[in-house]
Each structure stands twice: as C-alpha cells, then as structure tokens.
C-alpha cells in the first residue's frame, strides 16, 4: 500500500488542454470598483433606471460587508480594486446568424470542440454562448419562440422582458444574501435568462457555454430560469477558460424558480483553469446557486461535475417551499495538485411531504483539499419530510484531504433524515488487476473514477456525460503511477 | 513458451522465492502445489509484474522476450494471463465494460482494430455459453458482491475472452462447488491448444482429475523441490507435505534468517 502513495506523488497534472487566448479587441471598464463602475456597466448595457438603482443598492450593501472565511479554503486577499469589471468583445453589428460571428471567436469554439454549427446540426442543442460577459449568437430562437419559451441573454431580457426580470431577479438570492452575491448584483455583466410558459415541455436541452477571456476580467454572470406551472426544462452550463497567470475571480449567481408541477434540471460541467502544478494562477470560483420550488409537486435538480478552478466555493441549494416538492443535488468534485474545493448543498424543507436527495462524490489527488459541506434543514411545518444524503470520497495518494461537514437541523419530528458517508482509496491491487488485463494505469484510473462517479454521471444528459467523463480523466491524468 | 531461470524475488526485504527454475512449452499443462506460504502466489505475481515484488536474481524469458523488462499491461498484451487467487472488486465499474476495455486494450497492443459492439457481443455470448456464465453478473460492478465461486468463474470467463498464450490459474478451484469445478475445468480444457500453455496452482488433486497436468511441481520455501508426473499429486494427497519437508530439512529455515 505504501508504495502506491509514493508513485502517485511523482506524477502531476497534465498541462491544461484548453489554455489558449482568443485575440479580440475588448471594450473595457476602467480597473476598479466604485459607483461609477456600476453606472458604466449599466450605461453600456442601456439598462433602465430601475436596474441601475438595484445594482447601486447592491453595491452600497456590498461596501458594508466583509468577505466570508468559514469555508475550508485558503487564498491570498483579493484586491477588488485591481479587477476590470466589464469587458465586451467589440462587434460592429449584432449578428443575425451564426455566419456573422467574428471568425476568431468561432475558432475558439472549434478548439473547444463545440462549434455552433455542429451543435446545431447534430445534437439539437440551442446554445447561448457567453464570451466575456456579452452574449453572442443565440440559436434555435425561432423554434423556442413558437412555444413561447424565452431563452436569451440577461441583457436582452432586461430590455425586452423587463416585467419578468424585475419580478424574479433577486427573489431567490437577494442582493443582501452574501458577499459574492451582493458583488454580482452590483456588477453582473451578462448571463442567461430562460422562461418556460405554463404547460410547456422544452423540447431540447438549453445550453450556455461560458468562457472567461480578456485578461483580468472578473466574470459576474447572472442566470435566471423561471418554469411556470406544469412546465419542464433541462439546462446545461459548461465552461472552459484560457490559461492565465493571475488569479481570476468568478462570482456568478444562478436563480431557479419552479411553480406547481414544474421541473428544472440544471447541469453544470465546470473545468476552468485550475492553476499550474505549483498552485499558481487558476480561477477563484465563488458561486451562489439557489432554486426555489415555489409550487406544489415541483422539482429542482442540480447536477454538477466540477473539475476546474483553483478554488471552488459553491453550494447549489433548493428551498422546498411547495408541498410535495423535490430537491436533488448530484455532484462530482475533483481536485488535483493545489486545487481547493468547498462545495455541497443546502436543502431547506419548508413544505409538507418534501423530499430531497444528495449524492456527493469527491475525488482528491495531489496536495488538494476537497470538502463537502451540506445543510439539511427541516422546518417546523415540513411534516413528513425526507432526506437522503450520500457523501463518498475517493483519495488518490496520501497528501490530499477529503472532509465532510454535514449539518442537520430538524424542527419537525416527523422528518426522516439519513446520512451515509464513505472514504476510500484507489488501491494498488485494483490498478494491478486492471494492468494484468492489459489496461494501462491511466486508463485504469479513469475506469475506477468513472465507476465511482457513475451515479452522478448518469444524471447528466447523454452528450454532456461523454464530455464529463473525458474531463474527469483529463483532470486526473498522471496522478497515479 | 516461458523459461524461468534461478528466479529470486522478495518483498520489503523479505526473500520469498529462492531460485525457481521452470520451463513450460506450448501445449503443456503444469501444476504447482505446495504448502501455504511457500510462494506460489508470489511466483504468479512476479510473473504478472506486480511492482511491490523485487526480483533480486534470475531471468524469465517469455515467447523470446525478457519478461521482467515489460510492464504488467505489456505482459498481458504479450499473452500472459493471471487468474487471481483473490479477484479485486471495483465498485461502479460494470464487469462488461471492464472486459470490453481489456479485450480492446490487448488488441490495441497487438496492433489490431478494436472489436465493435456486434463482434464483441458475439464473442461474449460464445464464451458465456462455454463457461455457463450468468448474464446478470456482467452488468454488475466488477466482482462487487460476487460470491467466491462467481469471482473465480469470472476470472476464467475473462481468460476465455482474452485467449492468452500462458494462463496462470492461482487456486481457481478453491471456493468452487463440485459442479462449478467441472464447468470451469471444461472451459479451461476447451481453451487449451497446441500453442498455448497453462500453469495451475492448486492445493487439491481433484482439479487435476479434470485439468490433467503434464507435470506437477512442489514448491517449498520458495524453491521447486520436487517435480514429477501427475502421480505426484496423488502421492501428495495421500501423504501430505511432511515427506517433502523431511526430505528438505536444510531449506526449512527461511533464507532471510541465514
Ligand atoms: N506483501 C507482503 N509482505 C510481507 N510478506 C509477504 C507479502 N506477500 C507475501 N508475503 C509472504 O510471502 C510468503 C509466500 O506467500 P504466497 O502468497 O506466495 O504463498 P502461497 O504459496 O500462495 O500460499 P497459499 O497457499 O496460502 O496461497 C508468505 O509467508 C507470505 O506471508
Ligand atoms: Mg496463494
């Protein structure tokens, strides 16, 4: 056994495969954060007065807040005055079709293997691509419009559907919620907006590829999805960032709302630049994701595969307000080298007969640190609530850490809350068994971790699952000898 | 096929194999018997390339190549197969996915195209019938929750799928019920040909009634101390290992204490 560990140490992460920089002239805000920055962003986007006021309120609130330190992560202080809060790729005209998109940008997509045409033709995925804060090229719009589905950038939604945005933005994650949510509310640049009308089942997976691009640009996306009564939508978020030396801050906010009998399935594959083998650079990812099952019998399901970022601070949560509503959280978080992840979920049971299910799979390698932090809250009116949590950790080597912080608050004694946790190591005997059958160590590790993560991977839509499996293998490449 | 010369090996400074000489030619079946702890599984592990074991002396030639130079997966690619005494469990990895990967990795090593789904299924169905293999096992996680006998049967099923040149069966019979021994042995016999060879490690003469060996060797204190025809197995069954121990008093003492 001891031998297994020493060979693991010798190997390190493969070079980040998506490390390239797209050369597009940026249209930037001056460095630093002040009321003027907020006004600049709002003006750039031709926002209505109410939006600016909302942002300013958030900004003023943020000024009085302090950065939270309770998570199991360590990083140097962030200089919020040294960040550029807005950067948009310059485009002469708004593209009406894919052909009008900057060829440089198109090549970026192609390098990522997500050429829009391909996506369009083969997989029937409508892609709303966000490159550096401005949304470019939304496909399938016409088809979706016929069903009354709105799927557009947040900026567009603010212009075209102000009544909807105004009603729901900040209703799940208020501007005062936490430090990073307040920051996002003040300076968010763009993101996606999605509205599924009553009784409509969205016929395709909606997808946004985020990509951090211009140097020193913090990314502050804002996503809002509203599913009206009896509707259904599956939403995919995926992202890769080019290689950078400096740390980049990312603080997104995602809000989901489901009415009676509605369902939202939200899947994420996150593989932002994790930093180099020595722990230099990499994305700081501080995300607030929360959904509310407002209606009875509604359902929100989060699935995430997190392989990237130097720091991940992320707790996709569900407020189970409607009776008989269901919340799910399926997560695979991989950390290697010096990566740190503190991730998990909160399931807030408020309504009767509410259900939640948490499946968390943490994989740690190198000298990384991987923490699961979860809260299951059963309110006093949540009669007959049920929760099941399964938190498994897999270790590659003995220099990495896996931690589990489950918090359980039960205010109604009819609740049933179950928590199971395991920690295991990839055994040398497992690797040798695979080797003996002709399977090299790299492939063996991929097989073993994909087996470990299977329950979560199975939740992903098919086309995403394949990509996610590759990512798992890539992010652990060379971490076992 | 394989020529083992004066092989010495140990682990963590402890010497276990003290000079093994063994020559196996194509078409032959050899059996290795010997008391617990005599080094049978160690020999199998060393041949398969387990890194924990250190080879301190000797050589092994396999199909004209220096076996000890090759990585474990390369040895498998060359056609060496080990049916483990204790098959390993891998939760979440389906048996069928594992075997398909193994088959195609070995094909890749040999410069062959991977089998497509249809060809793989055809091969699988054929070998499943041969081994009387329960289909539901294949969709379950590799060896996880398999009974002892099911694990052993799965080992031989993998052997059938991989069609190795030299198969080492480490106590494949232990844990098998009487019917299963017959089925597994029949499977092994059907896989036997004039250009492959089998090395059976066993404690019981019974298996050798089905898989009839050309040679029987007795391993004791890391050395082959007696070789003979299949009658030697009968003799051991009758007399136990005492007569071997009595005949070899000097090596009773493990090498590392000297
Ligand atoms: N990893 C190890 N560390 C220390 N000693 C070991 C290790 N592996 C094997 N040994 C020792 O080497 C000797 C030979 O073991 P081996 O498993 O090869 O025996 P065997 O002949 O296969 O026995 P059995 O019939 O019980 O299967 C034993 O004394 C065993 O304890
Ligand atoms: Mg043994």
Automatic annotation (TrEMBL), chain A:
Record-annotated SUF system FeS cluster assembly SufBD core domain positions: 210-452
GO biological process, one term: iron-sulfur cluster assembly
Taxonomy, superkingdom: Bacteria
Pfam family, one: SUFBD_core
Residue ranges of domain SUF system FeS cluster assembly SufBD N-terminal in the record: 137-202
Family: Belongs to the iron-sulfur cluster assembly SufBD family.
NCBIfam families named in the record: PRK11814.1, sufB
Protein name from the UniProt record: Cysteine desulfurase
Organism of this sequence: Flavihumibacter solisilvae
Upper taxonomic lineage: Bacteria, Pseudomonadati, Bacteroidota, Chitinophagia, Chitinophagales
From TrEMBL, chain B:
ABC transporter domain span: 2-246
Keywords: ATP-binding, Nucleotide-binding
Cited Gene3D superfamilies: P-loop containing nucleotide triphosphate hydrolases
A Pfam cross-reference name: ABC_tran
Keyword Cell inner membrane in annotation: no
A single MF term (Gene Ontology): ATP binding
PANTHER family per UniProt: ABC TRANSPORTER I FAMILY MEMBER 6, CHLOROPLASTIC (PTHR43204:SF1)
NCBIfam families: sufC (TIGR01978)
Similarity annotation: Belongs to the ABC transporter superfamily. Ycf16 family.
Protein name in the entry: Cysteine desulfurase
């Amino acid at each position: 056994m001891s031998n297994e560990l020493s060979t693991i140490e010798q190997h390190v992460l493969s070079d980040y495969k998506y490390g390239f920089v797209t050369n597009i002239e940026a249209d930037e805000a001056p460095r630093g954060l002040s009321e003027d920055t907020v006004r600049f962003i709002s003006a750039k986007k031709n926002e209505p007065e109410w939006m600016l006021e909302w942002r300013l309120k958030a900004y003023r609130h943020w000024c009085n807040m302090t950065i939270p330190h309770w998570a199991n992560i360590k990083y140097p202080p962030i200089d919020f005055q040294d960040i550029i809060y807005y950067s948009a790729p310059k485009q002469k005209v708004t593209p009406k079709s894919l052909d009008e998109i900057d060829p440089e940008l198109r090549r970026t997509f192609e390098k990522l293997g997500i050429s829009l045409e391909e996506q369009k033709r083969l997989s029937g995925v409508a892609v709303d691509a966000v490159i550096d804060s401005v949304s470019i090229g939304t496909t399938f719009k016409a088809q979706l419009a016929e069903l009354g589905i709105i799927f557009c950038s947040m900026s567009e939604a603010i212009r075209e559907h102000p009544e909807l945005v105004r009603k729901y933005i900040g209703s799940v994650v208020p501007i005062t919620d936490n430090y990073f949510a307040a920051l996002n509310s003040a300076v968010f640049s763009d993101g996606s907006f999605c509205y599924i009308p009553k009784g409509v089942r969205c016929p395709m997976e909606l997808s946004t590829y985020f990509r951090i691009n211009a140097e020193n640009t913090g990314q502050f996306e804002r996503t809002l999805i509203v599913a009206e009564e009896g509707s259904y939508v599956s939403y995919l978020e995926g992202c890769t960032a080019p290689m950078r030396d400096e740390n980049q801050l990312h603080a997104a906010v995602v809000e989901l709302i489901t009415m009676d009998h509605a369902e939202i399935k939200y899947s994420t594959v996150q593989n932002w630049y994790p930093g180099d083998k020595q722990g230099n650079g990499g994305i700081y990812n501080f995300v607030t994701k929360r959904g509310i099952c407002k209606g009875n019998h509604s359902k929100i399901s989060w699935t995430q595969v997190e392989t990237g970022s130097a720091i991940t601070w992320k707790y996709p949560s569900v407020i189970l307000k409607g009776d008989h509503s269901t919340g799910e959280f399926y997560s695979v978080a991989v950390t290697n080298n010096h990566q740190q992840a503190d991730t998990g979920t909160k399931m807030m049971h408020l309504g009767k007969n509410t259900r939640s299910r948490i499946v968390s799979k943490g994989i740690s390698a190198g000298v990384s640190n991987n923490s699961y932090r979860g809260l299951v809250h059963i309110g006093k009116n949540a009669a007959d609530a049920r929760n099941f949590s399964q938190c498994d950790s897999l270790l590659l080597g003995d220099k990495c850490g896996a931690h589990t912080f489950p918090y359980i608050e039960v205010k109604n004694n009819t609740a049933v809350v179950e928590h199971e946790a395991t920690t295991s190591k990839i055994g040398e005997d497992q690797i040798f068994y695979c080797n003996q059958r002709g399977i090299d160590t790299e492939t063996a590790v991929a097989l073993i971790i994909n087996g470990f993560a299977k329950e979560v991977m199975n939740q992903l839509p098919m086309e995403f699952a394949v990509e996610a499996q590759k990512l798992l293998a890539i992010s652990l490449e060379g971490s076992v000898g | 096929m394989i020529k083992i010369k004066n092989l010495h090996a140990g682990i963590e400074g402890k010497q276990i194999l003290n000079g093994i000489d063994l020559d196996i030619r194509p078409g032959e079946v050899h059996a290795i018997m010997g008391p617990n702890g005599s080094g049978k599984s160690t020999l199998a592990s060393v041949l398969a390339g387990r890194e924990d074991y250190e080879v301190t002396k000797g050589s092994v030639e396999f199909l004209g190549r220096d076996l000890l130079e090759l990585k474990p997966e390369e040895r498998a690619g060359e056609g060496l197969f080990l049916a483990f005494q204790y098959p390993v469990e891998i939760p979440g990895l389906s048996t069928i996915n594992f075997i398909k990967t193994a088959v195609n990795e070995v094909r890749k090593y040999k410069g062959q195209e991977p089998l497509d789904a249809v060809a793989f299924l055809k091969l699988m169905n054929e070998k499943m019938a041969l081994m009387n293999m329960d289909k539901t096992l294949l969709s379950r996680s590799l060896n996880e929750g398999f009974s002892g006998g099911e694990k052993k049967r799965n080992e031989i099923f993998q052997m059938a799928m991989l069609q190795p040149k030299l198969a080492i069966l480490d106590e494949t019979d232990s844990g098998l019920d009487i019917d299963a021994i017959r089925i597994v042995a029949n499977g092994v016999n059907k896989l036997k040909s004039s250009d492959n060879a089998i090395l059976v490690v066993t404690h019981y003469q019974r298996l050798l009634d089905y898989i009839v060996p050309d040679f029987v060797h007795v391993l004791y204190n890391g050395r082959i101390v007696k070789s003979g025809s299949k009658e030697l197995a009968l003799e051991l069954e009758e007399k136990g290992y005492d007569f071997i121990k009595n005949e070899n008093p000097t090596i009773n003492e493990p090498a590392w204490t000297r």
